[in-house]
Design brief:
24% of the residues lie in helices and 35% in strands. By secondary structure, it is an alpha+beta fold. The strands form three sheets. Strands 1, 4, 7, 8 and 11 form a five-stranded antiparallel sheet that branches. The chain has a four-stranded antiparallel sheet with strand order 2-10-5-6, with no helix packed on it. It contains three helices and eleven strands; from the N terminus they run H-H-H-E-E-E-E-E-E-E-E-E-E-E. A hairpin with a 3-residue loop joins strand 5 and strand 6.
Length: 181
C-alpha cells in the first residue's frame, strides 16, 4: 500500500515538474511566432524584413549620420497594390514628418505612375533610369508640418503612364517609412 501511494505521489510530482519546466522554458528561435500584421498572399512579414532593411539602408546612405540621429523612423510596412488601396491608420508622435517610399511594378511594365497621399501628397512617375538593382524606385518627400499624435493612413493609386490616370489593373509592391520629429 505504501509503495502504491509513493508511486502515485512521485508520478504526480514528476507531472507537475514537467508542466512547470515547459511553462518557464524560453521559446527557441525556431519556434518563435512571426507577427502577421503585414501579410501578403499568405506570406509572413519575415520574408520581406531583409528587403525592407536593405531598402532603408539605401535611404539612409544619402543622409549624413548627424541628420539621421535627429529624427525617428516608423516602418509602416509593405503591401501589394492593384489599382488602388487604402492602408491602415498609424499615429505619428511628431510635429514634422516625411515619407520614404520604395515601390516597383510587379507586372513587368516599367511605365508606372503613382499617386500617394497621407499627410502629404506625392504624384510621381516611375522612371526606368532611377531604379535600384532590385527594381525599386525610391522617393523621399520634403519635411512637412503635421498634427502631433494624429492618425494618418496612406492612399495608393497606380496606373500606366500616359493613359490619363485611369486605373488599368497595374500591380506594384510598396514599402513605406515615416520619418518624424
Amino acid at each position: 500500500m505504501k509503495k502504491k501511494i509513493r508511486l502515485k505521489l512521485t508520478s504526480l510530482l514528476v507531472a507537475f515538474a514537467t508542466i512547470f519546466s515547459f511553462a518557464t522554458t524560453p521559446v527557441s528561435a525556431a519556434a518563435k511566432s512571426v507577427s502577421v500584421a503585414n501579410t501578403e498572399e499568405g506570406k509572413e512579414t519575415m520574408e520581406y524584413a531583409d528587403e525592407a532593411r536593405e531598402l532603408r539602408q539605401k535611404f539612409n546612405a544619402v543622409e549624413p549620420a548627424s541628420t539621421t540621429e535627429s529624427y525617428k523612423t516608423d516602418y509602416w510596412g509593405y503591401c501589394t497594390v492593384t489599382n488602388t488601396h487604402t492602408g491602415g491608420n498609424h499615429t505619428i508622435y511628431g510635429n514634422q514628418a516625411r515619407l520614404c517610399v520604395a515601390f516597383k511594378p510587379l507586372d513587368g511594365n516599367t511605365a508606372l505612375s503613382v499617386s500617394l497621399s497621407s499627410f502629404t501628397y506625392i504624384d510621381t512617375i516611375y522612371r526606368y533610369n532611377m531604379v535600384d538593382s532590385d527594381g525599386y524606385y525610391m522617393y523621399v518627400t520634403d519635411w512637412v508640418p503635421i498634427t502631433y499624435m494624429r492618425a494618418y493612413n496612406m492612399f495608393y493609386k497606380i496606373w500606366t503612364t500616359g493613359n490619363g490616370g485611369v486605373c488599368d489593373g497595374r500591380t506594384a509592391r510598396f514599402h513605406v517609412w515615416v520619418d518624424y520629429k
